[in-house]
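sry for the spam today, last one i promise. struct tokens for design, 236 residues
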């Protein structure tokens, strides 16, 4: 079975699609992009030959990015912040039966390991921001805003066991940072406070130590088998 063009896989086999970025975070302003994220299920027979389907695809729409289901689940089990947040977007555009089951597994991906991955990602992004200031002499306010949002999201996830994407009442404070109205030393102070609060929260977190890998793998295997049966029935 020859693999179709990557964007055809997205068009014909998407099981879940949502809006992410500023619109999902509650931080959209006039002119904000609409970032589309999705998950597609490559038909099982595509894995039987030498040429495998792609693990992710850009497009076909502008600002659109999709993962193949197995890759998406693997990243989510490793508590990748960008992937986990996709499962908690308040702006779901499409979910078929497989997509709805994926959404029902949201809690299976969550664990205290999020502390390590979220904070490590935040540290890396902070380093880039500092390097940019040294090079250009001015902060990048939009990435700084999203870094504050991410750290607060991590803290609250560890405290409550629930991942909430929309910033809610913090919107205006964060938009002030985005507009460059908050001095950089104050922004860094807030980052340090949020990171320390996340460090404190992890020890008492209601989250399990590890994600429920077995539950997710069971879902993936059943989905692959169903895809194979559907292809066989169609071929017959």
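last one done:
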């Amino acid at each position: 079975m020859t693999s179709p063009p990557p964007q055809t896989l997205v068009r014909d086999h998407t099981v879940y699609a949502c809006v992410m970025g500023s619109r999902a975070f509650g931080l959209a302003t006039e002119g904000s992009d609409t970032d589309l994220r999705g998950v597609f299920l490559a038909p099982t027979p595509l894995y039987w030959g030498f040429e495998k389907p792609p693990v992710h695809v850009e497009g076909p729409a502008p600002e659109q990015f999709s993962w193949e289901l197995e890759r998406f689940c693997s990243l989510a089990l490793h508590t990748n912040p960008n992937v986990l947040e996709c499962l908690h977007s308040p702006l779901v555009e499409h979910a078929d039966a497989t997509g709805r089951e994926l959404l029902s597994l949201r809690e299976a991906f969550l664990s205290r390991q999020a502390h390590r991955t979220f904070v490590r990602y935040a540290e890396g992004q902070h380093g880039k921001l500092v390097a940019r200031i040294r090079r250009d002499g001015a902060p990048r306010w939009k990435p700084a805003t999203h870094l504050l949002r991410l750290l607060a999201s991590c803290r609250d996830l560890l405290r409550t066991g629930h991942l909430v994407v929309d910033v809610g009442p913090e919107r205006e404070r964060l938009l002030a940072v985005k507009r460059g109205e908050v001095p950089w030393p104050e922004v860094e102070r807030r980052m340090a406070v949020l990171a320390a609060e996340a460090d404190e929260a992890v020890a008492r977190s209601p989250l399990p130590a590890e994600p429920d890998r077995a539950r997710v793998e069971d879902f993936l295997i059943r989905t692959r088998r169903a895809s194979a049966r559907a292809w066989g029935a169609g071929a017959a």
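The radius of gyration is 20 Å. ok im logging off now
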